[in-house]
């Protein structure tokens, strides 16, 4: 067994996950440890594809021997527990523990012969070692079941130890089964990763609880300060209320006299305002009449301006019509269309006139 432990310790450090320390110690890591874990996680992520490759048969046997030794130690720890806590365990838990022990010792012997062609001679040795550990556990059970540390450890601590022991035992058995089947231990890495996440979540909850306690303390201090301030404020306000009551009695006497004076004064002011309102009403009526007259004058001017513009527009239209008619008549005369034709002369004169007319038409065309 010692040789198996030494050979397993000689394995590369990258194989062992960085989360083992967190799951075993149960202490929150420091800032430096967090940085180391981050770098280790990055390295593990890169190494995972290499780890998934199955180990050789010799490595599987070495690791299985180490894990078997670990399960034996966990079973010893189970029997070290005090009697009071052992009595509280259910019968099903005891049966499960006994079945796990039997399965752990028998798993190594159930490795198939074609999978182990060269290491068949080592299997009997491993089986003998597992039998020796079982016999040792049976011999030591009555001794370790005595309540030696019952007065020191409380029930909750014992429960925690039992839960942790069961957790590690389950992980190791699953890892051994995976090693026997495929030669890898990805289930171990997954379990450790999950446990690390749970631990970090637990530490976050503790940090939030501490923060909440600090906030509660600060709020309690603020509440006490606010209460003191409110008490002082209430006292000062009571004094101020008493002072105001004294002033109120004085003010009542003054107000009675002032009311009589104000009544007469208001009557006079009402009469004056009535006169002013009547005067302003007359002025407003006059102003309304003036504005109505101005509106009529403006409308009359606008109407006259419209008539004038209409007359001018009619004159312009008439002039343009006359010009258009004169232009049309001129074109009719020049082109000798309609009733505007010149008298015919001799043929020679006609030819000359035609030639001249063509020349004139050409000139007119050029001008156009």
Instruction: Count the E strands.
Output: 0
Mean pLDDT: 71
- Structural category: mainly alpha
Share of residues in strands? under 5%
Radius of gyration using CA atoms only? 59 Å
Let me know the largest β-sheet: none
Number of helices: 10
* Basic shape: flat
Distance between the termini: 127 Å
User: Level of helix content?
Assistant: over 70%
Query: N-to-C SSE series?
Result: HHHHHHHHHH
Weakly predicted, low-confidence segments:
1-51, 83-89, 108-126, 139-144
Organism: Ursus maritimus (Polar bear)
Biased composition (Basic and acidic residues): 338-362
InterPro entries: IQ_motif_EF-hand-BS, IQCG
Subcellular location: Cytoplasm, Cytoskeleton, Flagellum axoneme
Keywords:
mainly alpha; 0% strand; flat
Task: Provide an overview of this structure.
This protein has a domain at 2-213. Helices cover 83% and strands 0% of the residues. The chain contains ten helices and no strands. Helix 4 packs antiparallel against helix 6 and helix 8 (155-182) crosses helix 9 (186-335). One of its GO terms (biological process) is sperm axoneme assembly. Belongs to the DRC9 family. Residues 254-310 form a coiled coil. Keywords: Cell projection, Cilium, Coiled coil, Cytoplasm, Cytoskeleton, Flagellum.
What is the compact description of this entry?
The protein is 83% helix and 0% strand.
Question: Which helices and strands appear, and what pairs or packs with what?
Answer:
Layout: H1 2-9, H2 20-25, H3 31-51, H4 57-80, H5 83-88, H6 91-107, H7 122-144, H8 155-182, H9 186-335, H10 347-367
Helix pairs in contact: 1-4, 4-6, 4-7, 4-8, 6-8, 8-9
């Amino acid at each position: 067994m010692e040789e198996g432990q030494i050979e397993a310790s000689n394995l590369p450090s990258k194989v062992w996950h960085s989360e083992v320390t967190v799951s075993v110690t149960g202490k929150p890591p420091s800032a430096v440890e967090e940085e180391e874990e981050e770098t280790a996680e990055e390295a593990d992520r890169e190494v995972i594809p290499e780890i998934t490759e199955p180990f050789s048969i010799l490595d599987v046997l070495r690791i299985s021997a180490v894990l078997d030794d670990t399960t034996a130690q966990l079973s010893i720890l189970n029997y070290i527990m005090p009697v009071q806590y052992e009595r509280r365990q259910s019968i099903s838990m005891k049966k499960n523990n006994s079945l796990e022990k039997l399965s752990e010792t028998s798993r190594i012997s159930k490795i198939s012969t074609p999978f182990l062609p060269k290491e068949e001679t080592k299997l009997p040795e491993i089986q003998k070692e597992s039998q020796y550990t079982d016999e040792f556990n049976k011999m030591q059970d009555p001794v370790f079941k005595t309540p030696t540390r019952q007065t020191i450890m409380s029930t909750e601590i014992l429960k925690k130890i039992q839960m942790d022991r069961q957790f590690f035992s389950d992980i190791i058995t699953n890892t051994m089964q995976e090693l026997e089947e495929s030669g890898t231990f990805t289930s171990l890495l997954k379990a450790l990763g999950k446990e690390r996440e749970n631990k970090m979540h637990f530490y976050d909850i503790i940090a939030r609880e501490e923060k909440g306690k600090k906030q509660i303390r600060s709020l309690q201090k603020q509440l006490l300060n606010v209460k003191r301030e409110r008490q002082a404020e209430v006292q000062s306000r009571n004094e101020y209320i008493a002072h105001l009551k004294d002033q109120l009695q004085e003010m009542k006497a003054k107000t009675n006299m002032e009311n009589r004076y104000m009544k007469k004064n208001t009557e006079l002011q009402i009469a004056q305002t009535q006169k002013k309102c009547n005067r302003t009403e007359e002025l407003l009526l006059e102003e309304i009449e003036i504005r109505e007259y101005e509106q009529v004058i403006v409308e009359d001017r606008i109407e006259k301006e419209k008539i004038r513009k209409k007359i001018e527009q009619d004159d312009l239209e008439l002039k343009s019509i006359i010009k258009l008619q004169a232009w049309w008549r001129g074109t009719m005369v020049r082109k000798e269309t309609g009733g505007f034709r010149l008298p015919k002369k001799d043929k020679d004169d006609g030819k000359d006139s035609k030639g001249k007319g063509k020349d004139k038409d050409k000139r007119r065309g050029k001008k156009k």
